[in-house]
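Notes on consecutive records. When two proteins share a document, each keeps its own sequence and its own token line. Never mix them. Below: protein one.
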Amino acid sequence: MMDSDVINGHDVDLDGVSEEIDENGVGLSGAGVDGERTIIETDSSSVNADARIKKKAKRLIKQLSKEAVPIGSSVVQTTRHWKNSRRPRNGFGRGLPKKGGAGGKGVWGKLGSELWEDDVDMRDPNYDSDTEADVELKTIIPEMTDEQLQKAVEPIILEYFEHGDTAEAALSLDELNCRSKRFMLIRFAIELAMDHKPSHREMTSVLISDLYGRLVTQKDIAKAFDVLMKNLPDLILDTPEAPIILANFLARAVADDCLPPKFVRTYREKAECEHARQALGRAETLLSLEHGMTRLDNVWGVGGGLRPVKSLIRQMSLLLQEYLSSGDIQEATRCIVELEVPHFHHELVYEALVMTIEALNRTTEEKMCKLLHSLYSAVIITTDMMERGFLRVFEDMPDICLDVPLAYAVLERFVERCQKAGVLTDEVIKKVPTRGRKRFVSEGDGGRVKSDPYV
């Protein structure tokens, strides 16, 4: 029997589909596909068998309509007659409206639906929830470069040279972000100390000793000296005495237990630079001296503020005597600056005046006046120190006069000379003491007053 059906606007004949009939005479004898037409043969004796055959053929054609079935060189494609249907095309929909009920042409969904997140990632850095635990945020500061570290360390060390507080300097250095470059702190401190006075080098040695174990380790100090040894050829250009200074720093670090004694011997064996071998040789010599560890405490000398007053007075007296014998103002100035006692310069003025009064010599007066004028012009001796020195002499004149009877006359002449040189102010000149009673000589002089001590 031949039947035809219309599927998707095409005439399809059901043929070639057969099925074996069961006991009641109803069955499908076979099925086949020939071109675009499908023929299904059934037994006309059973209506039920005819319905089953049509149903099965429709299922087959429906399946073929979903897929492109190649037949020879052509492809069979069928179009859906439910063009505007809202049913899902995959056949697995839940029956819900598309896009949450906000579908349609040119519509992407409900307003704000693009901000919805279906899956919430707990590890997302932007994840925020009221129920999550407190999040601790840490500020990450990048480590400083060598140039940045040098610019930051230099003002800290220079300030330390002014106040001398190692604890304050350690706190300032600890704030710098240089975890892997701590040895650079020691290196920059020593390089700065090379261009300063011995007292500042002593302060640097004390700072290294205080930083050891707190901010830097033994490896950091050893690495700093290693870098300095390699840079000696460049350091000598600015500081010709760099090998000697570095040797003193190295020996002092060993004496302060910041480095082991074997460091000097071990490094000397593998040193390639001649300047480095020279520095290591001097350091080894200082350490091998008798009581060398004790002597190294004063390897930089005693600072001006720590010296006894008697020692300072003696050194000032010796440099003035040397100046009177040589007449070299520059050498005298250098010795005065090296004493590093600007607060005690009034003692220098006092010793100069007493020496001039006791000399009773015009040449001594001229030399002392030139020295005081040079020191005053260079602001090595300030106006306050100059006035205090002269006023101390004015107060001690009664005692000085016992040893030098002509002290008042010599003082007046010297003050007048200093006034012409511009060393003294008018207030000091007004306070110059004068002898209340004129001293007459013996009768052999005819009663003449002896006013000029050089007559």
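Protein two starts on the next line and is unrelated to protein one.
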Amino acid sequence: MRSCCGGEAHFFAPREKDAMAAGAATRLLEWIFAFYFLAHIPITLLVDLQSLPGAGFYPRSLKELTSWYTVSFKDPMMQDPPAWFRAFIVCEAFLQLPFFPIAAYAFWKGNCKWIRIPAIIYATHVMTTLLPIFSHVLFNDFSRSKHPAPQTLHERLTLCAIYSPYFLIPCLILLTMLFSPLYNQVDKRKKK
């Protein structure tokens, strides 16, 4: 629609501004996601995989770092992981780790619609694994633990806070993939 002066009518401008703002917000989230995936590669390789049996090849300095963490933040799952926690680490090693550089590339580049379904699968999987971790930290009786473990509510909440980015960022990824117009546009192709 044209105005009397030959230009576009002014009531279209707010939609364009809203679309630009949504695009800028999505772009900022994509950079956060790219950083998250890039940072997750060394964390997985250097710290998390130490929880698996046969991980004795790690240098002493990395083992000491993990030991410092487990004592300082009272995380017995990293010191003496239950079988279910090891299963999550195996999933991290063989399912998630190969995905990290791919996702980092896609989100750094931006607007890669092909990452939508894999990102939804990843986010759903990781959020699901964090629920038993939070439950274990909050409700488990650690009174007989061989290793330092959270005893007070403050210690339990502190440990949950350490794990929380691995729930919150995937939650943001999931919401972005489901609701961002940039990832939900239907390609309009002519049928021949």
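For the record: Confidence is low (pLDDT under 50) at residues 1-12.
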